Every structure is written in C-alpha cells, then in structure tokens.
Amino acid sequence: MGVMNALTTPSAAASVSFLLRIADGSLVLSQRLSEWCGHGPILEEDIALTNIALDLIGQARLLYTLAGAREGRGRDEDAFAYWRDEQEFTNPTLVELPNGDFGQSVLRTYLYTAYQLVLWQSLGASPDAELAAIAHKSAKETAYHCSHLAGWVIRLGDGSAESHQRLTRALDYLWPYTPELFTADAIDPQAAALESAWRATVAPVLAQATLTPPAASPFRATGKQGRHSEHMGYLLSEMQSLARAHPGAKW
Amino acid sequence: MANEVPDFARAAGLDAVAPGGAPRAPRLFDGSCDSAWEILRTIPDPEIPVVSVVDLGIVRAVEINGETLRVTMTPTYAGCPATELIQREIRENLQQAGAAGVEITLALSPAWTTDWITPSARLALQRYGIAPPCATRDAHTMAFKPRCPRCASTQTELVSAFGATPCKALFRCVACGEPFDYFKPL
C-alpha cells in the first residue's frame, strides 16, 4: 500500500522540469509576439500583441524564478532564458513556429492561449501552493488574451474570401502541432487530461469562424523533449545574442 | 507662466499633481504601523501618479518585527514593469523617513484584483481621465460600457482591449467623440 502510494501519488511540488516546460512555452511565444512590435497592421493591434507578450514574459519570469529556487543551483530567470541552448528548451513546437502573416499569428496565439487557459485553471487547483498562486494570477490575464484573440479568429475566418483563405491555410499548418500539447510523458503524466476542455473551448470559436480543422495526422512534434523545429535556433540566437555578447550587462 | 495649470487640466483634476508625482508631505517614521501606512500613502503609482500604491491595493500588509519593518506587496500584472520600481520607491521612502530595516515581501496569492482599488482612488482615476474598473463580478465580457470620464455619457465603445498599459483598454465616447482609457477589471 505504501509503495503503491509512492508510485501513484504525485508529489505536491511540481518538478523543475515541469516548471521549465510551461515557462519556456510562455517565453518563446512572447518572443514571437514581440516580433510584431512596430509591425502590427494597425496601431491598436501592435499595442495589443506586445501587451500580451509582456504578460507572457511575466508568467515566464515567475515560473523560472520558482524553478531556480527549487533547483537550488543558483540559476535565476536570466540564466534560464539566456544561457540555455536549444536542446534544453522544452516548449512545445507550436509556439516557436514563424509568425507568418497576422492571421497565422493570431490563430497560433489563440490556440496556445486557449491551452494556457485550461492549464492555469487546472494548476490553480494544484496542491503546490506556489505554482497554484502563479496559475491563478496568470489565468485572469490569459482570459483577456484568449477572448481578444478569439475575436480576431472569428473576424478573419468569417471575413472576406481572402482572410478566410489565409486562416484556412494557417489552420492547416498549425493544427498538426496541437496534439503535442496533450502528449503525456514522465514530466507531465496528466497532459492528456486537458485535451477535452481545450477542444470544448476552441471548437465553438473555430465553428463561428467557419474554419474546419484538418483530419488528424500521425505527425507528432517533439519540442517538449528538446527536439525542435529548424526555426528554434534562429529564434534563440536573436533572443540571446545581447545577453551573450555582454554577459552580466545591466540596464 | 509656465507653471500655471490650464483650465482643462484643472477641470480634469490634473492640478492636484505636483510636477514629478503626487504631492508629498515629508513624514517621519515613528516606529508604528500607522506611520508606515501614512508614508506609503504618499508614494504615487509610477504609471498613474494621481493614485498611491496603497490606494491601488498593491501594499497588502505592514508588520513590525523588532527593528525590521516588513511590507508585503503584490504585483498588479505579472509582467508589469513598474513592480520593481514600486519596490524601490517603497524601500527608499521608508528609509528616508527613518525606518532602519525594511524588508519587502512579494506575495502572489491572493492575486491582485481591481476590486481592491479604494473608492477615493476610483474618483481620482476618473478625474484624471481614466474610467475606473467595474466590479469583477460584473465583468464577464468586454461588453461592459464604462462611463466617459469627460462627459459622463454611457454611450461608449471599445476601440481596443489593450491600451497604453496591459491594465487598460481603449474606449471612445460616442457622445463627445473623445477617446479615453478604461482600467480593466481583473
């Protein structure tokens, strides 16, 4: 009985690997969104996307700081963001894919923030009090991101022939990367449990946007295992170049 | 001449703001929690200087433990760049007032909510031109129509869910035609 409990009952505190994985998802998506700074189709949207990027950085900072404290090797948020190499990042591949056009960017960000919404809601009930506090705080902010992006997905999907065609193309490209979010492994044995809630969130929005996801494919992305797409190296080299050119630099 | 407050600014309540921040009366720390709160109430929010960090609900608790003054604060938004500045302002203001040891704890739980913004701060926000947030229990959607802080009309429309800072949305008043910021309920 005691042995069974030890094997089946998850420890109350989330592992460093798990914290880094969800922090990496927020940071890498934030980096992609910040590429829109100064390039948004309209000023308001430029500001909205970069505001969302800022909230995602905030999530990542809290999670990295917690991971660093639990790891106990003196690594802080900057050490995790700037001094790890590609294979050490464990974000799902979805968030590192190129922005593409505005439609593809909002669709990708919508699909991931809808996932974050169910993730934060589930982690808000975690016995890990520190992680639950971060999740509860993030959930409130993510709800704004998600509803804002859903509005754009509907507006563009159910928009002109051109915008509908672009969103359809973007969904065909992005959809095969979504099953990775729910692929369970030793670090996150419960990952699959979030899929039905995510589908229930996303399906009505896609339906209203007159978009149909492509048929399921056997393709599985492997970013969570540190095996990334060819785009990740370029993203990191841009994100990390300043910190690595001037180690220890302060504003 | 240069220091005169224009009429429109006085009408909007901007004359209450001294250059560089909210009015500050030098106060001394007498070792009590009350005096610590008094000092904290003079520290303006860096982004919205008409309200103090206490009125915004950022300062959660003040405790005195021997020689140490412990202040518990909470960030508004997780990525808010002002959090570190506010921490420094709290430390510096208390030290300048004579507090020896100042210890600042950042608490994430319970998460900050706009429901903690005091009634007087809501009025100050409105006079400053920012529509104050509705109660979070009424904020199910962005469909809520804030009252225009200029002409008080409720004929207002959302321009963008994200304004100059993550905590604000951009609205336009249909009645008077002016754009204004709305502090989003969180």
| Structural class by sheet pairing and helices of chain B | alpha/beta
Cα radius of gyration of chain A in angstroms: 18 Å
Number of E-state strands of chain B: 7
Percent of residues in helices of chain B comes to 10-25%
CATH fold name of chain A: Ferritin
CATH architecture of chain A: Up-down Bundle
Q: Overall pLDDT of chain A, averaged?
A: 94
Low-confidence stretches of chain A: 1-10
- As residue ranges, the low-confidence spans of chain B are 1-22
Q: How far is the N terminus from the C terminus of chain A?
A: 55 Å
Strand fraction of chain A equals under 5%
Order of helices and strands of chain B: HHEEHEHEEEE
Q: What descriptors fit this protein?
A:
heterodimer, A: 251 residues, mainly alpha, Ferritin, 61% helix, globular, B: 186 residues, alpha/beta, four-stranded mixed β-sheet, three-stranded mixed β-sheet, 4 helices, 7 strands, 20% strand, elongated
3D structure, described in words:
The complex is a heterodimer of chains A (251) and B (186). Chain A is built from nine helices and no strands. With 251 residues, chain A is an all-alpha fold. The relative contact order of chain A is 0.14. Chain B has four helices and seven strands. In chain B, the strands form two sheets. A four-stranded mixed sheet of chain B has the order 4-7-6-5. A three-stranded mixed sheet of chain B has the order 1-2-3, with helices on one face. In chain B, a hairpin with a 7-residue loop joins strand 5 and strand 6. The longest helix of chain B has 15 residues. Chains A and B meet through helix 3 and helix 6 of A and loops of B.
Architecture blueprint of SSEs:
The complex is a heterodimer of chains A (251) and B (186).
Chain A lengths: L1 H7 L7 H19 L8 H29 L5 H6 L19 H22 L5 H29 L3 H14 L20 H14 L23 H14 L6
Chain B lengths: L6 H5 L21 H8 L18 E7 L2 E6 L8 H15 L4 E6 L12 H10 L1 E2 L24 E5 L7 E6 L5 E5 L3
Parallel strand pairs in B: 2-3, 4-7
Antiparallel strand pairs in B: 1-2, 5-6, 6-7
